[in-house]
Each structure stands twice: as structure tokens, then as C-alpha cells.
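Onboarding guide, step 5: your first structure request.
Type a short instruction followed by the sequence, for example:

Predict the 3D structure of this protein.
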Amino acid sequence: MKKKSISKFIFSITLVQLVGALGALWTTREIGGWYATLARPWFAPPNWLFGPVWTVLYLLMGIALYRFWISDSKKKDFAFIRSVYLIHFIPHIAWTWFFFSLHRIDLAFIDILVMDVMVAWILYRMKEHDKRIVYFLAPYLGWILFATALNYVFLSQYVR
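The system replies with C-alpha cells like these:
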């Protein structure tokens, strides 16, 4: 790996991990608190699973960003796709804030629907530049779709 490529790799991983750390500020204290008080459906994972899953997902998301960054940047819409990828972190972080900090399950649900569409679009468009990006973003899309179902159950139970 060239020095420039190593710098891009480290930057990509660090950027995405920082996004995760920001979300953890709101999540960590609420997992054992408010979240533990919610009536969870049978398919809700145990609390201890969230940290390891998100750590792996953030690593994979960082690798996806890196692979995209080193792909052929002369292809059509490269800058636009990269911008959408970076912008998608706004609803990503907002979901955590809505759900865990504000306890606004309704706003979190609307937000996660936006995120679902954005991540599906990003995955579809990034794979045009590097087909292996699917391996790194598909688990993230799968997890947030699962989170969408979980959010919906909470919404149906607590917001009337």
C-alpha cells in the first residue's frame, strides 16, 4: 500500500469511527436506562450485542469509504456519490439523538426510513465503482433495516 493510500485508509476508518463515537455519547447511558424500560419484541438483540455489532459495522463502513475513494474518481457522479455518503451521516447521527437522547421514537422512525433509502442508494451507486463495496455496506444496510423493524415495533407500542 502506498503512503498516500495508507493515509486515505486511516482517514476513512477514523472518520467513520468518530461518527460512531458521537452516537455512543447518546446511546451508552440510555442502553441500561431508558432503553431497558421499553417492552422489546422477541427479536430484539440483547443490549451487549449493540456495541460489538456497531464497532464492526463502522469498520466496514470505513473500508467501503476507502475503497470508493481509491476507485476511479473520473467516473460519472463520483463527487456526488461521495457527498451523499458523507451527508448520510447526518440522519445516521440524528437517529441516535432522536431515539436515545430525546426519546422521540416517532422522529427516529421517520429518520431511519430516510437513512434506509440513502444507504440503499449509496450501496447501489458505489458498487458501480467497486463491486466489492457491497461486501462492506450490505451488513450495514441489513442492520439498519433490522433497526427499522425494531423502531417500528417501539413506535406502534409507545406513540399513539
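Each response can be followed by summary notes, for example: Residues 3-158 form a domain with the Ferritin fold (CATH 1.20.1260.100).
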